[in-house]
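for the recovery benchmark. C-alpha cells below, seq after
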C-alpha cells in the first residue's frame, strides 16, 4: 500500500515535501469561476437565486418560508435524540467552553504622567455565521463543528450567531445538528448549503441577513466561496483536507500509529497521513498494521485512496531530523509518539495542534479534549493559528490627550507631519495650541 521512504536521501526529502504540499499547489479554475458566478447571482438576485440553487441541488420542494428552521422543527429534534447523546454533547461542550474561556481578552489602558491615556478596546463583532456540512438526513452530521465554531463565538459575546447547513431531499436537517445548536444557544438556523450559503451570509438577502464573520468547514466550493468573500467579511481560515504527521520512535506501538493514520485518511480521499520514524522496524510494522486495520473501516475505499495518493512512512536518521522536517511541513495535527514527547515540545515551531504521547489520539482533540479542532492546513500553521475566541473579537485603539500632553508632543508631531508633506496634519496641532 505505502512503502517507507528513506529520508536520509535528498530524493526522499523532496518526495515528502512534494506530497505534503501538493494540495496547496493544485488549483481548479472551473471551481473558481463557478463560485464567482454563484456569488454574483446571489448578490444581485438575493433570495431568488438562493432558492433556485437550493431546489436544484438539495430539496426540490423547499420554499422561502421554510428556509429558516422553525420552532416546531427545533422542538421535534429534541424529541428525536436520546439521553446518551445529550450527555455526550454536554460533556464535550463543557470541555470546549472551559478551554476557550481562557482565551478571552480584556480591554486595557496605559497612562502617562502628563495625562495622556492610550489603550485597547476589545469588542465582539455583531454577528457570525457558522457553516456546518452534513446537515442532510441520512448523512454524517458534524456535531463537533457546531460546538467548535459556536462556543468561541458565544464566549466572545457575539450577539447574533447564525447556522447554515444543507437540507436533505425532503427539506429536513439532522436532529443531532439542531439539538447541538440549541444546546449552545443558537436558534437562527437556515437550510442552505454550498457556495450560495456563503454568498447569503456575506451579502445578505431578505430572508438571511448578512454577518460579519463566517467560519466552518466545507467542500471545495465552500472553501472557494470563503476565499472570494474574504475582505468583505472575516473568515476563519482557508482550509484544505485533513492532515496528520506522526513522529514516532522505536517505543511507539505500530497499531496506534496505523490507527491514527487511518483516522485522518477516512476523512477525504485527499487527506494527508504521514509518519516519520527513527525505526526502520517500526516503519515496516506500521505498513502491516495498515493492511490489517483498513478492511475493518466503514470508509475503507476513501481511506485506501488517501493512503495510496498521499500516505507516507519515512525513516529519519535522528529525532532531530524528524522534528525539523515536521517544522518544515507545518502540519495541521502533529503527534509525538515517542518515549519522552515533552522533551521535544520546545523544538516544535509550526503545527496546528500537538498531541503528546502514545495515549493521545488526534480523535480526542477532534471531540472532547477542549482545544479547537479548526486548525490551519496546507502549511499555514507556519503563519496562522487555530480558531478561537479571538476570531470573533476586534480591537480598537484608545487615545486621549490633555492640552499639556499635546503641547509636550507637538514638536514631534509637527516634525513628522512636515517631513511627510502633510501640512494639514501639522496644522491640526497648531490651531489647538493657539487657542487661548
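predicted aa per position
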Amino acid at each position: 500500500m505505502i512503502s517507507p521512504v528513506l529520508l536520509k536521501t535528498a530524493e526522499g526529502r523532496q518526495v515528502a515535501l512534494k506530497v505534503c504540499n501538493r494540495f496547496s499547489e493544485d488549483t481548479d479554475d472551473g471551481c473558481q469561476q463557478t463560485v464567482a458566478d454563484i456569488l454574483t447571482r446571489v448578490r444581485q438576485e438575493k433570495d431568488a437565486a438562493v432558492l433556485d440553487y437550493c431546489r436544484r441541488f438539495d430539496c426540490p420542494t423547499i420554499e422561502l418560508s421554510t428556509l429558516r428552521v422553525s420552532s416546531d422543527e427545533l422542538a421535534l429534534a429534541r424529541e428525536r435524540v436520546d439521553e446518551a447523546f445529550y450527555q455526550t454533547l454536554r460533556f464535550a461542550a463543557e470541555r470546549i467552553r472551559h478551554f476557550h474561556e481562557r482565551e478571552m481578552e480584556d480591554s486595557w489602558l496605559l497612562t502617562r504622567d502628563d495625562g495622556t491615556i492610550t489603550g485597547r478596546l476589545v469588542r465582539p463583532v455583531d454577528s457570525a455565521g457558522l457553516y456546518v456540512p452534513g446537515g442532510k438526513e441520512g448523512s454524517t452530521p458534524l456535531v463537533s463543528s457546531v460546538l467548535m465554531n459556536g462556543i468561541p463565538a458565544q464566549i466572545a459575546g457575539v450577539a447574533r450567531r447564525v447556522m447554515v447547513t444543507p437540507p436533505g431531499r425532503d427539506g429536513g436537517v439532522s436532529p443531532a445538528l439542531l439539538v447541538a445548536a440549541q444546546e449552545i444557544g443558537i436558534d437562527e438556523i437556515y437550510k442552505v448549503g454550498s457556495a450560495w450559503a456563503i454568498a447569503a451570509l456575506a451579502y445578505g438577502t431578505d430572508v438571511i441577513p448578512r454577518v460579519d464573520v463566517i467560519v466552518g468547514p466545507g467542500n471545495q466550493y465552500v472553501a472557494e466561496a470563503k476565499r472570494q468573500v474574504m475582505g468583505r467579511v472575516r473568515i476563519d481560515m482557508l482550509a484544505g483536507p485533513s492532515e496528520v504527521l506522526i513522529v514516532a520512535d522505536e517505543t511507539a506501538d505500530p497499531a496506534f500509529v496505523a490507527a491514527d493514520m487511518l483516522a485522518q485518511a477516512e476523512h477525504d480521499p485527499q487527506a494527508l497521513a504521514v509518519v516519520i520514524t527513527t525505526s526502520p522496524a517500526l516503519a515496516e510494522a506500521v505498513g502491516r498494521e495498515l493492511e490489517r486495520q483498513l478492511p475493518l473501516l466503514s470508509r475503507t475505499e476513501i481511506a485506501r485512496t488517501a493512503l495510496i495518493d498521499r500516505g507516507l512512512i519515512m525513516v529519519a536518521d535522528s529525532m532531530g531530523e524528524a522534528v525539523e522536517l515536521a517544522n518544515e511541513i507545518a502540519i495541521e495535527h502533529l503527534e509525538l509518539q515517542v518515549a519522552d514527547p515533552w522533551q521535544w515540545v520546545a523544538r516544535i515551531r509550526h503545527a496546528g495542534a500537538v498531541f503528546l504521547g502514545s495515549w493521545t489520539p488526534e480523535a480526542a482533540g477532534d471531540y472532547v479534549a477542549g482545544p479547537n479542532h479548526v486548525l490551519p492546513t496546507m502549511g499555514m500553521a507556519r503563519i496562522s493559528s487555530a480558531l478561537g475566541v479571538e476570531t470573533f473579537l476586534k480591537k480598537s485603539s484608545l487615545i486621549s490627550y490633555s492640552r499639556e500632553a499635546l503641547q509636550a508632543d507637538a514638536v514631534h508631531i509637527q516634525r513628522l507631519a512636515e517631513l511627510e508633506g502633510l501640512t494639514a496634519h501639522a496644522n491640526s496641532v497648531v490651531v489647538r495650541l493657539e487657542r487661548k
